[in-house]
Design goal:
It is built from eleven helices and six strands. By secondary structure, the protein is an alpha/beta fold. It has a single domain, classed as Aminopeptidase. It has a six-stranded mixed beta sheet with strand order 1-2-4-3-5-6, with helices on both faces. The relative contact order is 0.19. The structure holds zinc ion.
């Protein structure tokens, strides 16, 4: 994931003050308070329905998957831990999906004088179904802690508990959930490589670009990207590009979150524009949205470790994704 808080980069905040939960609340209440004699909503309206039933997604199992990745150490391309992480994903994916596909490819980085060996991994549930939807995430981690202040620290690789391991952990546990209770549609779980190689955006999003340009028979109707969704203090706002291009798909996610009682983790406003793997998909004509908590203080630092993430956050995202998929017919 790449972002910038300045307007000089591709990613920038929306102009004007962001909506806050407080403002949304007052906006709804004020007309009622100003009408004398009018019955309030609470007197008139039926009691709010209880939250919809949540899925069998285990936050603890998912968090265990996050920890297992972190225990391998930083997992940038070219590292032994990168190879071990690929094996970990395949080992935990294969028993729960109908088909596993790997998509190996290479990327030449002339500045570093290396040719990266990269692999996208795809797990497919219900491959015979007519409709095909995709959930995706990146599984590699950043080779450089760019956001550290110390020059020596900046050169070190990050563990990427949130930035890499969290989305991967949720997709692996979702494979388990969909194995236990089958959705009606085909679900593709895609783990893309080389998202965070960098340092610049000309050397990022490598796996997403490769898949988007070579989807073969695996091209989905739409794709939902999970990136940095494990933060203990989870706040997933609607992302600007996603909201601009596919507001109806965003609506389905935020409606599911509200129905499941996850409104606090999914504040229903639009806040940041983020350059990420969804852009390559959208450019290739595959509708894609990005679910990302971009207020994570440990982004691209050596502090992006498992203790900053929580099973509860992983479960919130897993339940919402399961609901969106089960709602498909
Ligand atoms: Zn990153």
């Amino acid at each position: 994931m790449s972002r910038s808080k300045t307007a000089s980069r591709a990613s920038r905040p929306l102009p004007g003050p962001p909506l806050t939960k407080g403002r949304v609340g007052w906006g709804l209440l004020l007309p009622l308070l100003l009408l004398p004699g009018c019955r309030t909503r609470s007197q008139n309206a039926p009691a709010a329905p209880p939250p919809a039933a949540r899925s069998a997604f285990s936050g603890d199992v998912a968090y265990g998957m996050l920890q297992a990745q972190c225990e391998l150490g930083p997992r940038p391309p070219q590292s032994p831990a990168h190879e071990r992480c690929k094996a970990l994903i395949l080992r935990n994916l294969k028993p729960y999906v109908d088909v596993t596909v790997t998509q190996p490819f290479t990327f030449r980085d002339d500045a570093r004088h290396v040719t990266l060996a990269l692999t996208n991994i795809l797990g497919i549930i219900n491959p015979q179904a007519k409709r095909k939807v995709m959930l995706f995430t990146h599984w590699d981690t950043r080779p450089t802690a760019d956001q550290e202040l110390d020059a020596a620290d900046k050169k070190k690789p990050i563990v990427g508990a949130d930035d890499g391991a969290s989305g991967t952990a949720v997709l692996l546990e979702l494979a388990h959930v969909f194995h236990q209770k089958r959705p009606d549609v085909c679900v593709e779980l895609l783990f893309v490589d080389g998202e965070d190689w960098g340092p610049g955006e000309d050397k990022m999003y490598l796996g997403a670009i490769h898949f988007a340009q070579n989807p073969g028979p695996y091209r989905p109707e739409y794709a939902i990207l999970l990136d940095m969704i494990g933060d203990k203090d989870l706040d997933i706002h609607r992302e600007v590009t996603s909201q601009g291009l596919h507001p109806e798909l965003n609506d389905r996610v935020w409606n599911a979150a509200a129905a499941l009682g996850y409104g606090a983790q999914f504040p229903n406003d639009t806040k940041w524009q983020i350059s990420d793997d969804h852009d390559s998909f959208n450019r290739a004509g595959i509708p894609a949205i990005d679910l990302i908590d971009f207020d994570y203080p440990y982004w691209h630092t050596l502090q992006d470790t498992a203790d900053k993430c929580s099973p509860q956050s992983l479960k919130a995202v897993g339940d919402v994704m399961a609901q969106v998929v089960y709602d498909e017919r």
